[in-house]
Amino acid sequence: MTIKKRFMYSYISAIMITMASLFLIISLVFYVALGKVPNITTIYKMITTQRSLTMDEKNSYLGLDHLIQENPDQLMLPLADNVTQLIKTIEEKNLYVVIRKGDDFSYYSDGLVEKSLKVHAPDYEINNFEPVGTLDNAGRMYHYIKSDFLYKDGKYGSMIILKRESNLLEFFTKWGIWLILFIILLAVLIASLIIHRLKKTIIQPIEHLEEATYFVKESDNLSETIEQFPEKNIVREVERLQVSFKNMWIELEKAEKLSKQYEDNRKELIANISHDLKTPITSIMGYVEGMLDGVANTEEKKQRYLQTIYKKSQSLNELIEELFLYSKFDMDAVLFHYEQINLTSFIQEFMEDYLVEEEVEWTLNLPEEAIYYEIDTIQFHRALTNIIQNSLKFLDWTKEIPKISLSLINTEQSIIIEVIDNGIGMTKEQANKAFHRFYRGDESRTPSTKGSGLGLSIVEYIIKQHGGDVSVTSEEKEWTKMQIILPKKKGADNNESCINY
């Protein structure tokens, strides 16, 4: 049996036992007192009939009874102003007033139902031996005090004041303490039985699992230690918990190996680019020392020094972020989430931020209709960003019009994305090494080029994860073309005509 069912059955049983015990006690009390077990309505009437009148009921009754003694016809319609005012005062005290003449009810307060009054109203009793009682009106119980009289025309009349009843205070005043004590004792007994059962079937196995966690933590050989799980003869959920615990430690062992691999890779990354890190740090230290030594003795120099420090810090931050990203890629620690998207719309949205830059002449060639492909939108966006940023970085600003074009081409076998710029270009040797990790063609391109040399390596990794390929061709001092080739999936759309943006 599962834990859920055990708890459910235990609590239902406890509730049922308590309710049954309470019912038996109440029934026994009434049987001893009355010789029978009355129904709920009878019990309520018995409890409320003999209760004392409140001061509001007494005063209201005396006020109307005084009018009856003076002249009972004052309660005939239409009611005089003084009678109407007195009734209104009574009703403001949350009491209800009923005036009866013969079989008709000439007046009854709002909230009362006339049909129910005709059925449940007390009988006439001109001597008023039983003026107090309980009355049912539309399913609601009222405590009443009445005064029966004769109008001058000889017809019977009644004045009834009602108060809504809603509690069993007197009953609980007499028997409540014993019932509470009994319920408490019964609840303690049942809870003890439930706790004992739960401890034996659930809590103790979980405690064994807790003890095992400390044992495993101190053990040198995780695999041998956790072989004891799952234990036998335990509830299903605890068994699953122990199995999950075992699997968790196996995964932790794998994670530890992956972490070690990641650490080794990180050390390699740091070693390979130590000179790239040292340059901006040395520069920052130099400017800081200059400010400390008072070299920057004017506000203009201070601002220039601070601006330089800020730019160097930004470069360092970008470099470190790129390093850790590539490290994760290198260990296949980044999960790709592929979804079928419209490449045409995706590239159009991607290029919107770049098309507003007026210093560059942008050309965007996209097909008229949708081309769908399964990609990870976040990583593919990163790849395109790296390519565009690389083109911007190596534009030849000495040329009259720096240009960058991006084209989406649909062929029979594949989908091609091309980015072409008229920048400084690169040699064949540099093009062959463009996707190597940490490679930068600084010597023959621009001495001020910044970057980690990882941008295009990241592009290559992302595209390969999509089953595609990326290549670069260039002519030095003329142009560079980056080309992404994605193999066409079966059923892909073809023959898209192009529009120039």
UniProtKB/TrEMBL annotation:
Domain Histidine kinase: 272-490
Signal peptide range: none
InterPro entries attached to this UniProt entry: HATPase_C_sf (IPR036890), HATPase_dom (IPR003594), His_kinase_dom (IPR005467), HisK_dim/P_dom (IPR003661), HisK_dim/P_sf (IPR036097), HssS/ArlS-like (IPR050398), Sig_transdc_His_kin-like_C (IPR004358)
Matching Gene3D superfamilies: 1.10.287.130, 6.10.340.10, Histidine kinase-like ATPase, C-terminal domain (3.30.565.10)
Annotated keywords: ATP-binding, Cell membrane, Kinase, Membrane, Nucleotide-binding, Phosphoprotein, Transferase, Transmembrane, Transmembrane helix, Two-component regulatory system
Compartments, as annotated in UniProt: Cell membrane
Topology in membrane: Multi-pass membrane protein
Protein name per UniProt: histidine kinase
Organism: Vagococcus bubulae
